[in-house]
Amino acid sequence: MDTRTSPHRARIAKTQEALARLGLVALLVPSSDPHLSEYLPERWQGRQWLSGFSGSMGTLVVARDKAALFADSRYWVQAEAELAGSGIALVKIPTGTATHHVDWLAREARAGDTVAVDGDVLGLAAAQQLRAALERVGATLRTDLDVLAEVWPDRPALPAAPVYEHRAPMAPLARAAKLAQLREAMAKHGATHHLISTVDDVAWALNLRGSDVTYNPVFLAHLLIAPGGATLFVGGGKIDATLQATLARDGVTLLPYAEAGVALAALPADAKLLLDPKRVTLGLRERAKATVVEAINPSTLLKSRKSEAEAAHIREAMRQDGAAMCEFYAWFEAALGRERITELTIDEQLSAARAKRPGFVGLSFSTIAGFNANGAMPHYRATPESHAVIEGDGLLLIDSGGQYLGGTTDITRVWPIGTVSEAQKRDYTLVLKGTMALSRARFPRGTLSPMLDTLARAPLWEQNLDYGHGTGHGVGYFLNVHEGPQTTSKALPDAHMAMEPGMITSI
Questions:
Q1: 68 - beta bridge partners?
Q2: pLDDT digits 0-9 by tens, 8-23
Q3: Quick check: bond before 268 cis, omega within 30?
Q4: For all residues of the chain together, what is the average pLDDT?
Q5: Given 238, 270, 297, which residue is the final one in a domain?
Q6: Which of 13, 25, 71, 292 is most buried, by CB atoms within 10 Å?
Q7: Secondary structure letter of residue 375 according to DSSP
Q8: What percentage of the chain has pLDDT greater than the value 90?
Q9: Calpha distance 28→21 (Å, rounded)
Q10: How far apart, in Å, are the Cα atoms of 357 and each of 258, 317, 351, 367?
């Protein structure tokens, strides 16, 4: 057995014992937290703790006699390596799909069986779909158990990092103005109250930032907006007295993080609560006794459309980031062939160059420096145990970005090292053609972003080639590097993915 991953085999076995004790046939462990975040605080990295798979997306199902990890093509190579010796089967699913585990569970379950998932980390829409699939075969979904609490003895505590204010001029629109915008949107939906659980939306609405989630300047909190004020549910001690007073002047009061559900249950009988079914957990939805109005979070749309002032700051952040990239590449060209350079060295040198730039706060994601085959893994990460030396011939991919007070960056470049093959030249040229086509595209306002994906892929398709991952994504404003609602990918388009002025979208 692979000694590196054997602890995960033991953890799966312990979980299966708990299933038998609790009368369950299977446990669903999503890559999620109470805020449905993409990047998770350590406390909610249960899927990684159980399986050993460290990819940012993937769903683990533990049944009494088997376990399976569902991951798309971005993670297949990584998952096969990290699952070795764990006894967990890798189920390969198409990129852009996230429901294969639902079908798998429905096939495995029998009438009278009970499947469990922690409802406090499962999205409402996902829970509704899973419950319906299980009910069709006579099985039950139980959502009031946190099985990980029974099998994870040294589970990390909630992060305690302080929250700070994102001030003008870097935050051009005042907190009070943003809350007014949100109340105006609530009124259009006929809502009196609105719960925001997604942490980047909370941070945007209140002009606050934190460091609870690696690479994302956000903090764990829920925000409940009412007609005459707003309540921020956040961990004790994370907001100092001075900032509390500042928030109070804008009508924002604080309550303990764990009391969000209690507050929802206590809303007036005539309240109408606006909830986004794709951005709130089942656990919170079930605590709400008021009439629920389902709609996309207004903040998701508002923060995606950067103002002219924000765009100006973003351009400056990109200039600073570009200067860091130039400094790095000057070093790289001088050092290549003269000293030993590894994928880890690239990460260190590039991070050091960014750290010198004004307004730099941190990286926006883990730097991906992949040489040759490693560069083919979209979310590859070099480690001290496994990394390549940059020598010989091939292609070097560097995907990296920074968090600045005035914006978030994400830049990918591919460099030829030595002599490259004709096939590599062809593929590089086809990708470049697609990039140019999408960069130069003119399209009507309101065009759904997935519709633009074909412009980037067309040159490859003409040669019977394609890539499994998406083409581009929205980028936050000193927030998450992956931000919706727009996405340039094969995703099924919906009305909220319309391209609007001010959206910052990568290619």
A1: 61, 89
A2: 999 999 999 999 999 9
A3: no
A4: 94
A5: 297
A6: 71
A7: G
A8: 86
A9: 16
A10: 38, 9, 10, 17
